Amino acid sequence: MTHSFAVTTVVGNPKRLSRTLTTAEALAAAVAGPGAGTASFDLAELYRDGIEPPHGGFEHALDRIRAAQVLVVGTPVYKAAYTGLLKLFLDQLPPAALEGTVAVPVTIAASAEHRHLADLQLRPVLAELGASLPVPSLALREDELPELDAHLAKWTGAHLPALAAAARAAEGAAA
């Protein structure tokens, strides 16, 4: 099945240029398909000078999120939850900001026991903001990152058809 979607990535790792960013961008590229546009927001960069992003930075990110057919939201697991940086960003979004957007969370955990903790909290927040979450998250342990390509191939093989169908349905509903 050929697909091509506009995909935006938002990553809430406090470390700039993190493995979480690399993982989320790799998933976004796999989901976007050949020739499709992607945009990426590293919140560590966006908020580098404090809790207020640079003038226009937040609005630009929000515009790109609203224009995306698929939103990839990445976070490491910090203290059994998604990061405060990602929470800060999500708390600043207006109600229904993700209406009509298909979202896919990506979480990176240090241990197997924590693999799904951030996901359990993040999915309801994204749904509250109006996102559709039709497929499971990509939840990896840090020790799985060296085999990222294999994990992405397995995830996309299992879930890309449903994700594509949901993105097309959301696009049709918005038209």
TrEMBL record:
Keywords: Flavoprotein, FMN, Oxidoreductase. The keyword Flavoprotein applies. It comes from the Bacteria. Residues 7-135 form the NADPH-dependent FMN reductase-like domain. Pfam families: FMN_red. SUPFAM superfamilies: Flavoproteins. GO terms for molecular function: oxidoreductase activity. Transmembrane segments: none annotated. This is NADPH-dependent oxidoreductase. It comes from Glycomyces terrestris. The lineage of its organism: Bacteria, Bacillati, Actinomycetota, Actinomycetes, Glycomycetales.
